[in-house]
Each structure stands twice: as C-alpha cells, then as structure tokens.
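Bug #77: duplicate submission created two jobs. Keeping one. Sequence:
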Amino acid sequence: VSIKLPTISRRNANDITDFETSDHVGLNYLIDEHHLRTNLNTHCPNLVIHPADYKDSSVRYLGEISPVLDLHIDNYLQKGMPGDFAVPTAPEQWPLAMDIWLEKLLGGKPPSAMSQVAFSLRAIMFAWPISYDRPSTVRHFSELVRPKDDIKLLAASALLSMQKQYGTHIDFRKSKEPIVNKDAFLGIHLRVEKDATDFHWLSYEDQINYITRRLQERNGNSTDALHNDLPDSDKMIIYVASGDQPGIAKLAEDVAPITVVTKHDLLPEGTLDGISLRNMTWDQQALVDMLILEHSGYFIGVRDSTFSWHLALRRAAAVNWVVGGFPENCWLDNKKTQRSGCKSLLAENEEWRDNLSALVGNGHIRVEPQCARVIWP
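Kept job's structure:
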C-alpha cells in the first residue's frame, strides 16, 4: 500500500475568494512535511510514501471516487447538502466495500505488486465521523499536519510580545483549571473578509452583537458561574484574527476601552519578525493566528468557518476530552453549577458554546455540514 502526497492550491494573492487555482505547491507551503513523513514512517512502516510529482506508467489509474457514495456504505446526509457531504454511519464497512469495488472494476483480479492500481479520494474533508475513534486518537491525530516551524516561531514571538507588553497570561488552558485565568486574553476570529461577505456568511453585525453581549455579561459578574468563562473585562486584552483591517478597526471602536491587538501590532513593521510575517501569504498568516488563538483564555469564532470550528473543537478535546460534537447529555462541572457544554441550552445565535469557546450562529437557519462531527480537532 502506498500514498501519494497531495499538493496545495495556492490562493490568488489578488483575490482571496479564488482559492482553487492552478498554482499548486508542496505541503511545505503550510505544514511541516518532514514531521508528517517521520511520523508516518515510524507508525506505518509498511506504507510507501510517494512525493506529489511521482509518476509510474505501469500503475493503472482508476480515477477519482467518493469514499462514501461510490462504495455504497451506510451514511447520513444532512437534508439540503450535496452528496459529497455524506458521513459514514458504519465506517467499519469501508475495507470490505473497497475490496468489492476493486473486484468489480478489475474483473475479479485483485491488485498485486505486478499489477498496481491507484485512485484519488474526492471530498474527504467532511467524510469521517471523528467520534468513531478513541478520544486519545482524535485529540492528537491532526498534529500529523502541524504548521511549519517559521509559522510556529512567529506565533510564539507574538505571544511573548503580548505577555511582555500587557502582562497577559498566555499558557494553554488546562483541565485542572475550573475557570479562566483573570489575566488571560480573549481570542476572536472575526470573519468579515471579502470571501465571507461574497458567500453571505454571518455579518459583522451578527458577530459584534454576540461579542458585545458576552462582554457586557462578564462585566461585573466575576462570581457568576454562567458568565465567568471570559477573562476579567477590566484587564482584558482582545486578540483579533482577521484579514479585514476595516473590520478590525470597527471592532476596536465597538468594544472600547478594551485593548484590541493583532499579529501585526505584536510583530511590528521594521522588526525581523514583522518583516517575516508581512512576507507571508494570507493563508500562512492565518496559521500564525490559529496558533495564537489556541492559547486564548476564551475563544469566540463563527460557525461558517472550519478554522473556527477546528479551534473550538481542539480546545474542547484538549481540556475536556470532548470529541465528535456535544455529548448526548449536558455536562457540568463537579459542583453542577457551571455549564461546560449543553446543546439544548444554546442561544439562538450560538452554534457552539462551552467553558472554553463559543461559535456565533444566526438562528440555526443555515444548512451546514455537520462540522462538530467531522472536523479533526
């Protein structure tokens, strides 16, 4: 068995809505390919890894398939969604279904070392129910494709700059911490860039209304268990991740006098780190934001964004060992006084909320893939 590493379609620098370009680059554009290869070689020693440009004329190419629909395994498709968003309900059917599919296609002759075949898998982003695997696996699986070192170093530099300038607590939240550190920062993913508005995602108004409501609830409620998930608003630093400068400026105005910072503030122009950051592309800079937001005391994102979902689910898995979406029942702290997560108690403008993160929704009216079930944390 072998795998051919994929390539990344580099986003059009002049139009961020154009992300499916013909400008294909290697994985090292965003991730640490050496780390990926090393881990695959260590834990899957019999798996042959081919580079993206690998070609072998003796290998018969069978085309591109849907790993769910073309193999006819049991699945659930949310009403109104395209077929490629079907999620397997019995993933254990996959190996046998693959054997049957190959047998039919090859006239009953299985592949062999002398008769090799290859095929591509289509639309796999939402095609695996992560709760099928053990929580310990789910918590760490995405670390196979961690950001490359220069991105990690810039994120670390920005965090240290925040700590030095504002006395901010920048350590990860831990499961033994019942409430957020009073000096932690609030991380916000403000998704109002051109592509988001073109696709009619949640508006700035929807996002800021939720943010300001949570801030108002936190102010003066330091002992209220329902509202003390956020850091102390009197000392709060808000870190905003967004590619839209007017949106950031408007948010800073709307939450004043709370201090709002971005990666560009923490890594200023003219410094070595600032120069390195500004030489990065839009997507590379987004990974810097992602690593910084992982350290936030509380995170608020938007339900339309897989970036936001990844962060909310990663934090839930790392601290509360929650994977695959909300548990069947509400879960509370040991004293049964603090809501750590409960789907039935979500507000109309919440798509996710626990003691670590919240994702802004809009009346649950938009048909979405089941992000909470299929995005690796």
